[in-house]
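Lab notebook, design round three. We kept the backbone fixed and only want residue identities now. Task for the bench partner: fill in a sequence for the structure below.
Input structure tokens:
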């Protein structure tokens, strides 16, 4: 079973529209001769930069995603963005349940679940983030935490929809800290995540599921991480903010 490598940049709250244009043009040039057969590549800018990114990346092999989606079709939800709004922008992916949203904005497994359903309804591909904190890892709770995030996050999500889903395993203690899980440590957890999905949806769905690693992935470590059997790519924060480092990270992992 060969899964396609998928590497996405999560720009978080970085890049104005003008900066987005500059970065996307640099990325388009860098990736001009990169065969999409090697890896799926996407960038997820802030909402206000999506239109600019879509326009600037036209004719390239780089896809665009959003960083969040609300579960309602429309209504009195000040500050939120719906699936219809995102779909109309011409994007393909949406990140859901990032640990920063869980930590700072009250995201729970239940709201993650509702957002996944909304993304699927609007034919957007969810990149669903899961991961344990340092305290949970040190307390030997990693598997318990991940199992709950998966079970509750995917309640009532049909097996037939799982082909559109990507999982991003992001140990919270590795995000933006420069501390990466070692390839062996990450692989052990990825294998556990795949097994948990196999228990829920069967071996075939689990084998096809793309599971990204996220947390201080950079050009220097992307090759060793993605070489692991159950690590199928990455969700990249800091190293996605510069064309050179994002390209090198992808090239090292996928070429
Ligand atoms: P860093 O790559 O900056 O550690 O961020 C990872 C992340 O949170 C991607 O979603």
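Proposed sequence:
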């Amino acid at each position: 079973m060969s899964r396609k490598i998928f590497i996405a940049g999560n720009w978080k709250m970085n890049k104005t529209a003008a900066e987005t244009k500059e970065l996307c043009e640099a990325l388009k040039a860098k990736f001009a001769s990169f065969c999409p057969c090697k890896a799926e590549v996407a960038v997820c800018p802030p909402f206000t930069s999506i239109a600019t990114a879509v326009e600037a990346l036209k004719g390239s092999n780089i896809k665009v995603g959003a960083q969040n989606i609300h579960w309602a079709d429309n209504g009195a939800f000040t500050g939120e963005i719906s699936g219809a709004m995102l779909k109309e922008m011409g994007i393909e992916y949406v990140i859901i349940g990032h640990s920063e949203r869980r930590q700072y904005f009250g995201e729970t497994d239940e709201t993650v679940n509702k957002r996944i359903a909304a993304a699927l309804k609007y034919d957007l591909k969810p990149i669903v983030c899961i991961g344990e904190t340092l305290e949970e890892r040190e307390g030997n709770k990693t598997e318990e935490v991940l199992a709950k995030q998966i079970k509750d996050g995917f309640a009532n999500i049909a097996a037939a929809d799982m082909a559109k889903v990507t999982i991003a395993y992001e140990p919270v203690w590795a995000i933006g800290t420069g501390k990466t899980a070692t390839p062996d440590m990450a692989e052990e957890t990825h294998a556990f995540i795949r097994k948990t999905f196999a228990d829920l949806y069967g071996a075939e769905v689990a084998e096809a599921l793309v599971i990204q690693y996220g947390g201080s992935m950079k050009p220097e470590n992307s090759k060793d991480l993605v070489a692991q059997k159950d690590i199928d790519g990455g969700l990249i924060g800091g190293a996605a903010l510069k064309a050179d480092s994002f390209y090198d990270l992808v090239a090292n992992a996928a070429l």
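Keep this in mind before ordering anything: Strands lie at 6-10, 40-44, 62-66, 93-96, 125-130, 166-169, 210-214, 233-236.
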